[in-house]
Amino acid sequence: MMWQTSKMEERKNIDRLDELRRLMVLDSEPERQFDEVAQRASAALGVPFVMVNLLDEDRDWFKARVGLPICEGSAQKSMCNIFFETRDDVVLVADTLLDERFADHPFVNGNPKIRFYLAARLASSGHTIGTLCAYDTEPKNLTPEQTDILKTLASEVVQLLVARKIASSARL
Asked: What does each C-alpha distance from 115 to 11, 59, 87, 106, 110 come to in angstroms?
């Protein structure tokens, strides 16, 4: 039974990565629409760090970002891996030091010392491909309306990715 589960999970991951590649977005140039979504999320949530991140096999690649000088990180260290362990479409952690899922994470205990985390799943064809995520170096409480804003913006990102895929396919 264990063998079947790991084979099934391996197949799901292959399908997920195939879907991510079909979107033809990895390593693409910055695009105004994605940057604007990240900026709107930062303003609405009052956080200094926001990313539209896509989880490839080995890296966490940022299609858009606010407050970060880098454009990718290690997939193994990505806090957004939590979405492979939950069915929830939104994960809100007001204080990462008080949440057992994140308390020992290197980005919580080391730089950039993340204390607040909010992310919404980005899914395409039923596969988790990334998140729209927001971070802060201070604990933070949000209103339900603010969390809803992030969910709405995540839906907008998915629509942009699909529109981008259609446009890219038309050019081929």
From this structure: 34, 22, 23, 12, 11
Q: Kindly report, residue by residue over 113-149, the tens digit of the pLDDT.
A: 999 999 999 999 999 999 999 999 999 999 999 999 9
- How big is the CA angle at 130 (ends 124 and 132), to the nearest 5 degrees? 110
Q: Map residue 1 onto helix, strand or coil.
A: coil
If we measure between CA atoms, which residue out of 126, 94, 106, 152 comes closest to residue 20? 126
- Report the C-alpha gap between 92 and 90 in whole angstroms: 7
pTM for the model: 0.91
Buried b (16+ CB within 10 A) or exposed e, 27-42: eeeeeeebeebbebbb
Check residue 104 and report its DSSP letter.
T
Based on its alpha-carbon atoms, the radius of gyration of the chain, rounded to whole angstroms, reads 16
